[in-house]
Amino acid sequence: MPCLHPSEAPPLGWLVPCLAVADLAATLEFYGHLDVRQYGGDVAQRWATLRNRATEIHVFQGHIPRDLVNFRGADVPAIRALLAERGIPIDQDLGPWSVIVRDPDGREVFFDSSPEEHAEYMTGRTLTLPVPGGDPLAGDGLDLGNLSWCLVCADLAATRAFYESLGLVVAGGQPEHGWEILGRRDDLPAHGTRRRGCYVALFQGMIPADTLNFRGGDVGAIAGVLATRGASLGTGVAHAEDGGESLLLEDPDGRPVLLDTTPPERLYAT
After folding, report:
1. Which residue, 77, 96, 133, 266, has fewest beta-carbon neighbours within 10 Å?
2. All domains of the chain, ordered by start, with CATH?
3. CB 186 within 8 A of CB 236
4. Residue 205 pLDDT exceeds 80
5. Which helix (H) or strand (E) holds 247?
6. Is 27 helix (H, G, I), strand (E, B) or coil?
7. Of the candidates 155, 156, 208, 195, which has an alpha carbon nearest to the alpha carbon of residue 179?
8. Closest Cα partner for 261 from 241, 234, 243, 236?
9. DSSP letter string over 207-241?
10. Contact 6, 124 (CB under 8 A)
């Protein structure tokens, strides 16, 4: 597996969805069914870090008002200089290594790091550490695939320009049809490989809400496991004419969680 080595200037850090939840216990149970398991945090303080292989999600009850885009390990002093140079106002200044800006849709983008965390990022380390003595993609649970965080935007061009100004790059999409994919240069989806990293997809007029979209897993097999665990499967697995499969779930806060795989994206043997 290739190392995720930073190539941004300045470095942006690892991309992590931070989710605002109403009931932490219910959220942990829901994502636990998907084997997005807690590995850190403090339940007594109402927050937790979850992971499924190389994907991380952080969940907070009562700490943040809405979901936010979080970059960890960034060179925040250099990010500050970039923001000033490009005329992007800082919405909240939380210290030398922590700032929040807002995208054109009012979504908070949180750069939060420390000198030590930035040094780790610059080694090329993945955000989620490998399991001891094993493959960093190995695990004893469901392989959900890559995480694409689908963000609703009112003006695709304006939102794309904002994230490009931070250093994300366009990897694909159909802007004429209202969607585009952006990511860190080293986290962009690569069909036919098992490389991992969270990236964002922007949608104008196509989806009703920001959506966690896992791509590349064996959707049918995942649905079978969820059924044995008593999880709700909504309307069940949908089959596309091209051989793709999808399963739309809803977490306890009503957030769409879509498992969606087309034949070229499959991470499993066919």
Report:
1. 133
2. 14-122 (3.10.180.10), 145-265 (3.10.180.10)
3. no
4. yes
5. strand 245-250
6. helix
7. 156
8. 243
9. -SS-EEEEEES-HHHHHHHHHHTT---TT--EE-T
10. yes
Task: Give the CA radius of gyration of the chain.
Answer: 18
Q: Which residues contact 81 (CB under 8 A, 6 or more apart)?
A: 10
Q: Which residues of 123-155 are buried (b: 16+ CB within 10 A; e: fewer)?
A: eebbbbeeeeeeebbebeebbbbbbbbbbbbee
Question: Per-residue DSSP letters for 155-214?
Answer: -HHHHHHHHHHHT-EEEEEEGGGTEEEEE-TTTS--TTS-----EEEEESSS-SS-EEEE
- Tell me the per-residue pLDDT of 167-197, one tens digit each, with 9 for 90 and over: 888 888 999 999 999 987 655 444 333 445 6
Structure letter (DSSP) for residue 119: H
**Tokens matching residue 210:** 């920001």
Q: Which of 127, 109, 214, 114 is nearest to 168 (CA)?
A: 109
Q: What is the DSSP letter of 121?
A: H
Q: Side by side, which strands form the sheet with 179-183?
A: 169-174, 179-183, 199-203, 145-152, 211-216, 256-261, 245-250, 238-239
